[in-house]
Amino acid sequence: MELGGRRGLGLAPGLASATREPPPEPRTVPETRPPGPRAVRARRFLLCLYLVGFLDLFGVSMVVPLLSLHVKSLGASPTVAGIVGSSYGILQLFSSTLVGCWSDVVGRRSSLLVCILLSALGYLLLGASTNVFLFALARVPVGIFKHTLSISRALLSDLVAEKERPLVLGQFNTASGVGFILGPMVGGYLTELDGGFYLTALICFSVFLLNAGLVWLFPWSEAKLSGTKNGLRLGRKPVLPETDSDVQEAAPTPGAPKSKETAQWAWAEVTWALRDMRSLLFSEMWDIFLVRLLMAVAVMLYYSNFVLALEERFGVRPKATGYLISYSSALGALAGFALGPILRLYRHDSHTVLLHSSALTCTLLLLYSTARSMGVVVLSSTLLSFSTSIGRTCITDLQLTMGGAQASGTLIGMGQSVTAVGRIIAPLLSGVAQEVSPCGPPILGAALALVAIFIMSLNKSRSGGDRIGKLKRE
Description:
Layout: H1 2-9, H2 13-20, H3 37-63, H4 67-73, H5 78-106, H6 108-127, H7 132-145, H8 148-159, H9 165-190, H10 196-216, H11 244-250, H12 259-284, H13 286-304, H14 306-314, H15 318-345, H16 350-369, H17 374-403, H18 408-436, H19 440-458, H20 465-472
Keywords: Membrane, Transmembrane, Transmembrane helix, Transport
InterPro entries: MFS, MFS_dom, MFS_trans_sf, Tet-R_TetA/multi-R_MdtG-like
Transmembrane segments: 45-67, 79-100, 112-138, 168-190, 196-218, 285-304, 324-346, 440-458
């Protein structure tokens, strides 16, 4: 009882009343302070990175819709044009993981600058192409080094806390999506001018140079990266610099005797990362990448014959279908703003959000396949733009959560390689499905999405803390 009295319950009435009044003062609401200079600089860094994503897709989307027309004007047959067009996807398939791993080793700044500048060179060559050979040659540097968005996402995962990562990635996708909406409009206008394609390619080249200058001017010394050690940490402990500035400080001076050792160290790190990647792909994270592949192919099947299917089923002209696609793209870009409230509703459970968004995607694909009016098509397209955008962000966040953000470049690169496989598979499956019915591709896509949902449901228990802890354990 004496102890209780010392807490203010056994004192004299006067003293008790005197001691009861002061406690509320410490519990008063603290005054809100404006964000410090460090928080302001971090926010400014993120906004600059969003601008990089916007400029990247803005420049690319000006040129990409015109490629088929340009290669045809150069005298290429449909078969040759198809081979040249598929070369980009094949190069991306093999380069995505390698470039992502390379960015983990040499740092985000160096890898971003190299990728942007060499991609700019590719678009400059594209603008100067006067025959099919030069056109195909121009696609090589772009196919190998066009990974600006992947490295930028890896950099975002280094900069922000794990809880904030899905929201920041969603905002980055929104900024990039706006560029993808505006780019075709500018490119379509320019291509009607004399030498329009060459002018468009030159402007794309200039946009990439502007992007490189922006990356160069980033306040890298103020960026605090959360990935203190690169590598997937599956039984090894690589010791790497923490930031790009550390990389520059740790790098030997030109002509130093240790330059050869530095090169060997970098190659050894890449080799270790690739071995760890193989371990993740075929053991711990196989289901994550399989779900990514299935959902990517499902969505690609939906878009594969969208224009043709609407014309055959409802008599909609391609121009009107183009407006519908632009409308859906705009909504998909805006979906990034809805990701924050959705994650708070789900208590930042990316796996459950991905499961439910995939289920919604599957349902909407079936709804589109059985639609009897354009109103149902517009409704399904509207909701699909939200579900697919949120699903893409969540699958990327889940990869980084399960694999650990220490090698975010490698993990995101692996995801891009898996998506590249989908780009190769989807046209083949779409062609076979269209032989049956114009609704064949989306129905097949719904079936693949259902398989992905089944896999996620089976492995939901494995996505908990034990599995994550096992992957991040040294």
